[in-house]
TrEMBL record:
Residues 1-18 form the signal peptide. PANTHER family: DD-GDCA PROTEIN, DICKKOPF N-TERMINAL CYSTEINE-RICH DOMAIN-CONTAINING PROTEIN. InterPro entries: Diff-Dev_Assoc_Protein. Keywords: Membrane, Signal, Transmembrane, Transmembrane helix. The chain crosses the membrane at residues 335-354. The keyword Transmembrane applies. It comes from Dictyostelium firmibasis. This is Dickkopf N-terminal cysteine-rich domain-containing protein.
Length: 355
């Protein structure tokens, strides 16, 4: 029931947390800003260390499916997949053009089936809202925001910091029921020695550098400890590496040293998660769409983090301002063409009548 939600947490947040806390890419040994055409590793923001105005998109000419820094495709432009589209846009399977789709969860406004984030075989746009085609659910995402899927039924979910004791209750999406407090809590919020639920697959309850032990309490993580000690040893080395810099630092390719990262990325992650939970937003496919619940309520948090972007890439904040205008301009062009056609027909008709 909650497994899918935790997978989303891991894929959407932990990956981003790893990238941002260490401020480096996954594969390279150090961090550097990449120019157009240089190979990159995509991240949760589509930027992936690319320099200003670029996104990390797939290269259609590369048979090995590698990614490189490219200028993004704008609204209405042709695309091969969603990675090449501007932030807030996805590649439409119907038109093969970058479009504002997959932004709405069940119960949210839509104008077509493609606006709904869930698969079209499960959800349709009916009477202006995304609605499930079935009375049963298999995950929280098949329920309206503020509800959770329990025993194939959508039930009202417990809000953040509210009591979650008892059976057949569920916290809002992305939150979990803390054994220590019996309250619905933020992920990665438990302190040292707090009670937690051990899980071999996902470790999302304890704070960074802590892990949930088999005994059911938060203990110091060996990985976190080794990273910290490695950071001290790195100061004695000529060159740093991706794994040698501790939390709050990144390995700079140019200097070969671990440098301090001025932004508290973990605090950003917590603020972002808390905003999503409090506004009962779903983790839709197009999270950064201009029309998504996240953008309407929480976009300012991600805009804030990009003010300190090491590559000075302003595309994230610029896109949020321009995406409405992109669609407006595209629609205006279509409207102008239609209006011109009508006027031309009227002119021809008047000539015929006068003649």
């Amino acid at each position: 029931m909650k497994t899918i939600i935790y997978i989303l947490i891991i894929l959407t947040f932990n990956k981003t947390l790893l990238l941002l806390i260490n401020c480096q890419q996954i594969e390279p040994n150090c961090f550097k800003c990449l120019k157009e055409g240089e190979e990159c590793v995509p991240d949760g923001f589509k930027i992936g260390s690319c320099s200003n105005g670029l996104v990390c998109g797939s290269d259609p000419n590369n048979e090995f499916e590698k990614y490189s820094c490219i200028e993004p495709k704008r609204y209405g432009e042709p695309c091969v997949d969603s990675s090449v589209c501007d932030i807030g846009l996805l590649c439409s399977p119907e038109t093969n053009q970058c479009d504002n789709i997959k932004f709405a969860s069940i119960g949210e406004l839509c104008s077509r089936d493609l606006d709904c984030s869930e698969n079209i075989d499960k959800v349709s746009c009916i009477d202006g809202y995304c609605k499930s085609k079935s009375n049963k659910c298999t995950s929280d995402n098949e329920c309206q925001g503020g509800f959770a899927c329990i025993d194939s039924e959508c039930i009202f979910a417990i809000q953040l910091n509210q009591s979650c004791s008892g059976s057949s209750v569920a916290c809002d999406s992305l939150a979990f029921c803390s054994e220590s407090t019996q309250l619905c809590s933020l992920p990665y919020s438990l302190n040292l020695n707090d009670s937690c639920t051990f899980n071999d697959d996902f470790d999302y309850q304890c704070k960074p550098n802590l892990t949930c032990s088999k005994k059911g309490n938060c203990i110091e993580s060996l990985n976190g400890s080794s990273s910290t000690s490695g950071s001290n040893e790195t100061n004695k080395e000529e060159k740093c590496s991706m794994k040698s810099c501790g939390i709050g630092k990144y390995c700079d390719c140019d200097s070969g040293k671990c440098l301090n990262d001025a932004y508290d990325h973990f605090e950003h992650l917590m603020s972002k998660t808390e905003c999503i939970i409090k506004n009962r937003c779903r983790m839709v496919e197009n999270l950064y769409s201009r029309s998504s619940c996240f953008t309407k309520h929480c976009k300012y948090i991600d805009i804030e983090i990009h003010k300190t972007n090491l590559c000075k890439n302003t595309i994230f904040t610029v896109t949020y301002r321009d995406i409405d205008q992109q669609q407006y301009q595209s629609n205006s062009i279509k409207l102008s063409i239609s209006l011109f056609t009508v006027l031309l027909l009227l002119l021809l008709l008047s000539i015929v009548i006068i003649g």
